[in-house]
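ok new one. same drill as before - structure tokens go in, u give me an amino acid for every spot. 429 of them this time. try not to just spam alanines like last time pls lmao
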């Protein structure tokens, strides 16, 4: 759980119908487990997608649905009852997305009974129950192996059907369970270009690479992630697990069962927490303006002046962002109007986990000399240096770890009066 929260900013949580032997309808314990998993993600502020509401094949549905094989009206009512049960749970647990339909190209038993148009009803019903989540159509063999023409053509047909029928389709999911038959990156970009015509966000779903060749796995992860990240129509990469001890295809993991890191983990960490991570600071102009560029995502912005600091959490989107922060000064006679009070103390380093360098920040309640110390897990000091603190003024420094091995470390600020504050960080190379 700690690794999940440290490495990812979104999650997918299961809500499978199942075939009766597993999934939602297998037992009350399964229902409670699914509900608890979604609740845990909500409690830990990790936005989540529910997977999946309708997997329309006898292979993935409990047997009682087959009682309606010759009863379209009964089938329609049974699935509507299913949606009426699960979607409110997702709403209660704050799900931001649903995979509404999964793999319709080869899983269409329900559509054979009720007609393809029933898919439109499902999307509308989910949206009627909870209008907040984005609703996804998920399919495989669109990118995998370079794409299968029959799957791609049917995917286009279903997308067109939903759009023309007024379904609130909010995005396209393209499963990416790769094996050693890896597509070329130009082919991947061509496929994204083809489906960009629908003007719906595309997310890579269920990503893994099932191979013993760890070098090829790492190289393709780098190239594929870079290509997906570069395309304007994409907005998400969903990994189908990361730890070998609990992954559908264990060879596709990034972290081995013994918690050592594979080469593809190093690639992931460098891209996400280094190359695609915006860290910037500077002085405003005389007019109080500061301009910068950054990757899309969530930011914490802090402004300090004359002993006052205010901080605001914001999100940078494709439309750009203008943030106005007013710093009170004693000269104006203004009261303390910061959007958030100054939070004294030692902050969590960022990024964390990190590769070769990380930023340590401390906001002191008093001025004076202090000492920064960094210890390894065995208590051995690997770095120490004196620092000078000024009350209310953030002290921050980027620390290089070029000659220090991977592992867990602790950093402390020891104050002049003897008080010591400590935090933990993780170095990954």
């Amino acid at each position: 759980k700690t690794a999940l929260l440290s490495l990812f900013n979104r999650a997918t949580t299961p809500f499978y119908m199942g075939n009766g032997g597993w999934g939602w309808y297998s037992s009350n314990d399964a229902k409670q487990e699914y509900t608890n998993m979604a609740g845990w993600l909500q409690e830990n502020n990790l936005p989540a997608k529910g997977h999946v509401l309708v997997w329309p094949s006898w292979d993935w549905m409990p047997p009682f649905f087959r009682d309606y094989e010759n009863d379209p009206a009964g089938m329609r009512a049974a699935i509507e009852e299913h949606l009426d049960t699960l979607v409110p749970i997702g709403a209660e647990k704050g799900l931001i997305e649903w995979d509404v339909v999964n793999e319709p190209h080869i899983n269409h038993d329900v559509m054979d009974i009720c007609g393809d148009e029933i898919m439109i009803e499902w999307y509308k019903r989910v949206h009627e129950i909870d209008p907040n989540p984005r609703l996804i159509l998920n399919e495989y063999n669109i990118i995998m192996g370079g794409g299968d023409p029959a799957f791609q053509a049917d995917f286009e047909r279903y997308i067109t059907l939903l759009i023309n029928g007024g379904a609130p389709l909010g995005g396209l999911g393209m499963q990416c369970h790769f094996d050693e038959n890896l597509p070329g990156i130009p082919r991947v970009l061509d496929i994204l270009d083809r489906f960009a015509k629908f003007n719906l966000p595309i997310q890579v779903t269920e990503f893994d690479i099932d191979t013993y060749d760890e070098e090829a796995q790492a190289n393709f992860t780098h190239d594929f992630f870079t290509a997906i990240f570069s395309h304007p129509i994409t907005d998400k990469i969903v990994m189908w697990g990361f730890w070998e001890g609990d992954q559908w295809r264990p060879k596709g993991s990034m972290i081995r069962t013994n918690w050592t890191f594979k080469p593809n983990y190093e690639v992931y960490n460098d891209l996400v927490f280094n190359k695609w991570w915006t860290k910037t600071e500077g002085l405003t102009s005389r007019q109080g303006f500061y301009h910068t560029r950054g990757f899309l995502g969530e930011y914490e912005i802090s402004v300090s002046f004359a002993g006052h600091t205010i901080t605001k959490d914001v999100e940078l989107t494709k439309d750009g962002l203008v943030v106005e922060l007013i710093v009170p000064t004693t000269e104006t006679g203004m009261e303390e109007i910061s959007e958030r009070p100054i939070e004294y103390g030692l902050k969590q380093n960022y990024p964390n986990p990190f590769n070769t360098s990380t930023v340590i920040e401390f906001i002191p309640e008093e001025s004076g000399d202090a000492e920064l110390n960094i210890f390894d897990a065995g208590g051995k000091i690997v770095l120490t240096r004196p620092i000078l603190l000024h009350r209310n003024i953030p002290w921050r420094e980027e620390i290089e770890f070029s000659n220090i091995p991977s592992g867990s470390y602790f950093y402390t600020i020891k104050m002049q009066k003897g008080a010591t504050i400590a935090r933990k960080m993780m170095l990954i190379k």
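The radius of gyration is 25 Å. and btw The domain at 344-429 is CATH 2.60.40.2550 (Immunoglobulin-like).
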